[in-house]
Amino acid sequence: MIVLSLASTGSIAPTLLWCALFALAAAPGLVAPERAWPARIGWLAEVIVVAMAAATPPAEEAFVHPAFVLAYLAAPAFAVGAVAGRAELGALVGVTAVALVVAGALQDQLGSSSYGLAALEWTVLAGVAGVLGLAVQRLVRSRSDAVEPEFVQAARLLTQLRTIARQLPGGLDPGSLGDRLLEELNQVAATDRSAVLTGSGGGRLEVLTQRAPGRVAWETSFDAETPLADTWASQQPQVSNRTLDRAGPGTPVSVLVLPMITGVRTVGLVVLESDRTGAYPPAAVAEAVEVVGNAALRLETALLFDEVRGLATVEERQRLAREIHDGVAQELVMVGYGIDNAIADLPAESEAAESTLRLLRAEVTRVITELRLSLFELRSDVDRHGGLGSAIADYARTIGSSAGLRVHLSLDESTARLPAAVESELLRIAQEAVTNARKHAGAANLWVTCEVDPPFAQVEVSDDGKGLGRDRPEGRYGMTIMAERANRVRAELEIVPRAPKGTTVRVVLGGKSRQGTAS
């Protein structure tokens, strides 16, 4: 504005006068920018000041050529379009036209071709500037609506979920909710064996939890024509009488399969078995359907929460691995190179200094090796195609090879899978046991056993090292960490001496003995 006024008048006094008036007009918006009305008042004041300056007669000292000062109309028009909206832009353009006409009439400038033509042109151009402001507003809002509301909604939902998880008796643990559901169903229809099966996403079912005196070989495949497959496909409860080995040779049992449905999606199945025929009359089935229907949404919420937590944990482990690899690990490698260079530059007679530096170089090499093994542990996870046994075996082989341990593996896995969260926790327990054997036991052999037959699983890690010892520091073998992980998946953890020497870490999930064949 100062440049335009100077170009028009060639004198400083009129320029300072109009600049002071423009500053006064913009003051309301500057004083309270977070409030709408001061900004609106400022825009109107700016339009009025522009009209007054443009209509100043040429004979007066404060005269500024209309073509120069009217260019300023584009600024408030663009601001209104970008911030306010279409209606307020139309109102501002209307006020601009009225102000220019009134100011021109008061100063007898309406008949002047220079004023009238410039006023018409810049009123139209102000409208164009306002339309551009509307386009900018629309673009900003479209980008904001495409991203931010999703994060806002996600944050709101996660906050609510955290609150609910703290208030619920069993939290949002799928296994605990499954146990409660089976307990409620047992009061509705007496059962000898029952289980909650959830979809794994690979065309199979996972045994989430069960109530049985021992291990039961639950059917988890949809390939055969079974009540489970029929229930999953039809979303209707199925009652059948079947002969199952686990009930005794040739003994028919009653089987009730109930779908867990949320909306139009099947979340999982509940299987109830009774060793007496006719155990599930229509009245009992209807009551059981109601109980399962009330629990389906709670269980799906817990499963989703567990999946989100698992994804967040994996992402955090990968992030830590990247930071360690790109940060501390690289810096230690450079330190090692620096020590090598220092040894090479030592004079021949500096034997003591060389010995010290070589010891330091060996220690740096050891720390780098530990970091690399830690990175491997952070990046290790259960492959959805390989299974828990494969993940534990890969880890034990790698660690054993790096530590000079002879690894003895024994793997016995069924085609059924444990829930992903359970597999992950069992893998971490095995990793902790193997790492402790490598770091502290001084062992020569490592025996790793993994048996998976959902819902049963047993992982055992033994070594022939120096054993636990009576004076070991508390937590040296990571017992607290392993106990917390085992408790999270409701498994039993044992850490006992191994005969004739060494230590055995054993984690057992589910029953002790197996019963029968698939239902």
Automatic annotation (TrEMBL):
The keyword Transmembrane applies. Keywords: Kinase, Membrane, Transferase, Transmembrane, Transmembrane helix, Two-component regulatory system. One of its GO terms (molecular function) is protein dimerization activity. Residues 421-513 form the Histidine kinase/HSP90-like ATPase domain. InterPro entries: GAF, GAF-like_dom_sf, HATPase_C_sf, HATPase_dom, Sensor_HK_TwoCompSys, Sig_transdc_His_kin_sub3_dim/P. SMART domains: HATPase_c. The chain crosses the membrane at residues 12-32, 39-56, 62-82, 89-107, 113-136. It comes from Cryptosporangium arvum DSM 44712. It comes from the Bacteria. This is Signal transduction histidine kinase. GO terms for cellular component: membrane. PANTHER family: NITRATE/NITRITE SENSOR PROTEIN NARX-RELATED.
